[in-house]
Structure formats: structure tokens, C-alpha cells
Inverse folding.
């Protein structure tokens, strides 16, 4: 049978422990006394606690909204980081005169100790997310000092919470106030730009494009009417100029003044006819000549002067009419030139209107967007101002101390019982370890199984170990020493426990209560008494 197949014999281990029982006698009391000494010399540690409630907003959130949106857990983490800064901790150390009995500590070491002893534990609500309260605790070797530090931290936390919420509300209000001013300035600049753009493109504005088209039509009709009038004036001018170029006959004027000139022209025509057929001596010819002479004699110089004046007046009238026609034509030509320029402007404006309309709509959309942003910002500014009033009046979420820190009556550390028990347990573990080590190092054969394991042969007969007188005396002396040590160490350990850890009577009472023995004894005593 190989080593892996051979079953483990527990008696071998029991024999090994019994052979080296003196290790237990030495190390268990030694480590136990060491644990008792450590439990005795360690200084007590007191822990003071304060409980702070996170109260919700006094006014319904449906009516008034706070601008501080961070929940209590986030703000608590921020406050904790600010609370445990070096500057705040040094100020607390100076105010409470902490570590005055240890002048060797540096400020950094003092801050580290104060920070290590401070703890902030949130108490979560039913949703496991919202913080309904939190506990600030501090551990120190002095109970009063621990309570003083916690109360100082509580004051700082309350102050920091109020300052932080007020500052956040003020910063929110200032942000929206500045934002509103910026948007108002942008809107004013854009409106000024729109006004300038409208003035620069007044003729091409979309709202007047139909009017421009109608105006262009009317302008074209007016230009056509002026063109026709200019043609008529040109015809009149040519007729008057022709009349002026041909000249005005004085005889015709004289005809208008009297009958004699017309009669003379008739007689002269008859005279020409008679002279063609008759001689100058013919009585009829002579009669006509005489009558013509008589009629010419009847026409005086006044009539001729008057005829010349009338001719001059008629010529002046024609010239004035020609001047009027020229002036009218010049006016019409100027009007045509202006109309042509206006027509060009109107056509350019009509052609430019779509681009102007597109650009103007873009600018107006930007202005409308800025107006909406401005109104939205003003609404948020009003909410921020209301939120700031809530924070200033402390009507929003706030911290309230529901349990002030008091000096603790008993220390929370060290756990002297656990330390003392650990000492005895360490002694037992050390003794076991040494036994195992010794057994591993010692390869001597003591039992039949050792012989079989060494030689790989099963023994037929085993002879028990026979002690010599010297070995017997040595064993007796070891027993005596162990008994003496037990008689000394056991009472000493019990005395140390009774004096420095807990009275033995209280330990016995607690053991009896926890095991139920006390209740059993009470029942037995009651039955015997009855």
C-alpha cells in the first residue's frame, strides 16, 4: 500500500500533541499574558456622533422650484470634501486646542489624525438613493474632545450647506441676468441691422413688391403718353416753323382790316384779262386802271402800319408758341429721362426682391429666435430670483440637527476581550505550528505505521516503548513544572482579566445568560422552593 492509499490515523496526531504538551504550557500562557498586556496598555478610544436630518423644501415644489438641483447625497459629498480640507482642519485644531499634549506632531500629522478619525455616513431612504439624514462621528482618546470636534464639524456643515446653496442660487440668478443682457444686446444689434437693411433695400422689400410692379406699369403707361405727346408737339412745331419760314403776307393782313385791298386784287385780275384782249386805250381798261388808282389812294398809311404790327404780333405769337413747344418738349424729355431711370430702378428692385426677401427672412428668423430666447431667459431669471429668496429665507431643503453630539460614557475601542482572546488563540496556534514543524523535522520511527511507511513492510509484532528511570523522572519534572506554571499563570490571568478587562462575576453572569444556564438555575430554584 502506498503512502497516498494509506488512511490517516488521527491517533498519530494526538500522540504528537501529547508528546509535546509542554509547548502549550509555555506558549499559551506567554501569548495570553502578552494579549492581556496589550489590551491593558492600549488607550481607550471614544466615539461621539451627531445626527443631522435632511428636511425637504417647506413650500411645495409645484408652486416654487429651487434652483439648487443637486440632491443631498451629491451636496453631502461636496461638503465632506470641503470640510476635510487642510485649512478647515487646521482651524478646528486651533480653535479646540487639539493635540496640545503632543508637541512633536507636525501640522500635517495632526491633520492626518483628525481626518482619519472623522467619518460622515449617509442614511438612505426607502429608494436607497435619497439621503434622509446623515451621521457625523469622530473618534478620540478624550470623550469630551470627541464631542467638541463633532459639534464643531456640525456647525461647519450647516454653515457650508447654507453658504453653498445660497451661492449656487446667486450664481444661477447672476448667470441668467448676464445671459438676458447679452441676448437683449444681440437682439438690439440685429434689429438695428434689420432697420438699416430695410432702409438700404426699401424698394426691394417683399411687402412692397406688388406696389412696385403696379408702379412700373403706371410708369410705362405715362412714358407712352409722354412719347405720344412729344410726337404731337413735334408736329405742331414743324407746322409753326413752316409758317414762320414762309413768312406772313401783309396784303392778307390788309384784307382782314378793309375791303379795298381785296377789291383792288379783283380789279387787277380783271385788268389783266382786258389787257390780254384790248389795248391800253380801251375805255374799259382805262376805267379799271382809274378805279384801282382810286382804291389805292383810299388806303392810308395807318392801315399799312397796323397791318405790319399785326404781322409782327402774329410772328411773335408763333415764336412764343414754338418756345412753349420747345419748353414742353424739354420738360417731357426730362420726365422721360427720370422715368427711364425710375423704370431701371424698379426693374432692378423687382429682380432683387427674392434675394432681399430671403436675406430679410433669415434676419427676422434670427431676431424671432433671439426674442424667444430672451423671453425664456427672463422666465428662468424669475425662477432663479425666487429660488434665491427661498435659499436666503432658508425655506428650501435644509439640514437640521436632531441629535447633538454628547461625550460618550464608554469607549468603542480597543476591544480588550478580543485582544486578550487573540493572545491565547495565538499561543495555541503557535504551539500547534511548532509541533507540526518538529514532527516534520524528526524522522524517527515511533509506531508500527511509521515502520511500515519507512520500510514498506508490515510488522508482525510490535513491542511497546519502555521508558527508562531517567525518562520517567524527566517526565515527572515536566509535569510538575507545567502544574506550577498553570497554578501561577491561571490565577494571574484571571486576576488581570478581573482588574483590567471585566470583573469575573460579570463575565460569569453574561456566560450564564447567553448559554441559558441562568434561566435553568432559576427554574430549578423556583421548583425547589415550591
Amino acid at each position: 500500500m502506498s503512502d497516498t492509499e494509506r488512511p490517516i490515523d488521527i491517533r498519530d496526531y494526538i500522540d504528537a500533541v501529547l508528546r509535546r504538551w509542554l509547548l502549550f504550557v509555555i506558549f499559551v500562557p506567554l501569548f495570553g499574558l502578552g494579549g492581556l498586556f496589550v489590551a491593558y496598555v492600549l488607550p481607550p478610544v471614544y466615539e461621539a456622533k451627531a445626527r443631522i436630518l435632511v428636511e425637504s423644501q417647506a413650500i411645495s415644489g409645484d408652486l416654487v422650484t429651487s434652483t439648487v438641483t443637486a440632491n443631498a447625497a451629491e451636496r453631502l459629498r461636496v461638503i465632506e470634501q470641503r470640510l476635510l480640507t487642510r485649512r478647515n482642519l487646521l482651524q478646528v485644531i486651533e480653535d479646540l486646542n487639539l493635540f496640545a499634549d503632543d508637541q512633536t506632531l507636525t501640522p500635517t500629522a495632526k491633520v492626518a489624525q483628525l481626518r482619519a478619525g472623522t467619518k460622515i455616513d449617509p442614511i438612505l431612504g426607502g429608494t436607497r438613493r435619497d439621503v434622509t439624514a446623515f451621521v457625523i462621528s469622530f473618534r478620540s482618546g478624550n470623550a469630551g474632545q470627541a464631542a467638541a470636534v463633532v459639534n464643531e464639524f456640525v456647525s461647519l456643515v450647516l454653515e457650508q450647506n447654507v453658504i453653498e446653496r445660497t451661492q449656487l442660487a446667486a450664481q444661477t440668478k447672476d448667470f441668467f441676468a448676464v445671459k438676458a443682457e447679452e441676448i437683449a444686446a444681440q437682439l438690439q444689434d440685429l434689429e438695428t441691422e434689420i432697420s438699416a437693411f430695410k432702409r438700404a433695400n426699401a424698394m426691394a422689400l417683399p411687402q412692397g413688391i406688388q406696389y412696385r410692379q403696379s408702379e412700373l406699369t403706371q410708369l410705362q403707361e405715362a412714358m407712352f403718353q409722354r412719347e405720344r405727346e412729344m410726337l404731337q408737339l413735334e408736329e405742331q412745331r414743324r407746322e409753326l416753323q413752316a409758317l414762320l419760314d414762309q413768312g406772313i403776307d401783309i396784303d392778307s393782313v390788309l384784307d382782314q382790316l378793309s375791303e379795298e385791298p381785296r377789291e383792288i386784287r379783283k380789279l387787277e385780275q380783271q385788268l389783266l384779262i382786258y389787257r390780254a384782249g384790248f389795248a391800253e386805250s380801251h375805255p374799259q381798261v382805262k376805267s379799271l386802271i382809274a378805279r384801282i388808282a382810286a382804291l389805292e389812294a383810299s388806303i392810308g398809311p395807318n392801315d399799312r402800319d397796323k397791318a405790319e404790327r399785326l404781322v409782327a404780333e402774329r410772328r411773335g405769337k408763333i415764336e412764343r408758341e414754338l418756345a412753349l413747344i420747345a419748353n414742353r418738349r424739354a420738360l417731357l424729355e426730362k420726365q422721360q429721362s427720370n422715368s427711364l431711370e425710375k423704370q431701371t430702378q424698379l426693374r432692378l428692385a423687382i429682380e432683387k426682391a427674392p434675394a432681399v426677401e430671403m436675406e430679410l427672412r433669415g434676419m427676422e428668423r434670427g431676431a424671432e429666435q433671439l426674442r424667444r430666447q430672451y423671453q425664456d431667459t427672463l422666465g428662468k431669471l424669475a425662477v432663479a430670483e425666487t429660488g434665491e429668496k427661498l435659499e436666503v429665507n432658508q425655506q428650501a431643503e435644509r439640514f437640521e440637527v436632531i441629535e447633538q453630539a454628547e461625550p460618550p460614557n464608554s469607549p468603542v475601542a480597543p476591544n480588550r476581550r478580543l485582544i486578550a482572546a487573540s493572545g491565547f488563540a495565538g499561543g495555541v496556534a503557535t504551539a500547534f505550528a511548532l509541533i507540526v514543524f518538529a514532527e516534520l523535522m524528526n524522522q524517527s520511527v515511533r509506531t508500527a505505521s511509521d515502520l511500515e511507511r519507512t520500510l514498506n513492510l508490515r510488522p508482525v509484532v510490535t513491542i511497546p516503548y519502555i521508558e527508562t528511570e531517567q525518562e520517567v523522572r524527566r517526565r515527572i519534572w515536566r509535569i510538575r513544572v507545567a502544574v506550577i506554571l498553570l497554578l501561577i499563570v491561571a490565577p494571574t490571568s484571571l486576576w488581570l482579566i478581573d482588574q483590567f478587562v471585566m470583573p469575573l462575576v460579570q463575565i460569569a453572569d453574561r456566560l450564564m445568560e447567553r448559554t441559558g444556564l441562568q434561566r435553568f438555575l432559576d427554574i430549578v430554584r423556583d421548583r425547589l422552593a415550591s
